[in-house]
Amino acid sequence: MKILVGYDGSDPAKRALKLAREHAKAFGAEVIHVLHAKVTDLPKKQHMLDQQELDDVRNAVEMGGCRCEAHLVVRNLEPGPHIVEFAKKQAIDAIFIGVRVRSRVGKFLLGSTAQHVILEAPCPVVTVK
Length: 129
What we know:
Layout: E1 2-6, H1 11-27, E2 31-39, H2 44-63, E3 68-75, H3 79-89, E4 94-98, H4 104-110, H5 113-120, E5 125-128
Parallel strand pairs: 1-2, 1-4, 2-3, 4-5
């Protein structure tokens, strides 16, 4: 079993990672992939900080007894398509993603990563508030 966690450093993402670790242990998952997808227009220094945080997350997951691979993807797409594309290419069995409560107008104007992943993912998606 392969598990993917969409991770952005937020509290909901941290809770999704925790639940994914529990799920991985319960079902004997082979690996947890932690994916942080970013848009390219951010400063390079921010990408280095994000990579350091991902390295820390990977180490914490591995200390908990699960194999973990951390990925920082920087492209011109929004995070939702990155997550779905990664899940398809890696034959992921389950995706865990944190969600934030926003108004309908906020979702309309800004889009929703979780909504895109839920609708387009090739596997079950677990959302965590």
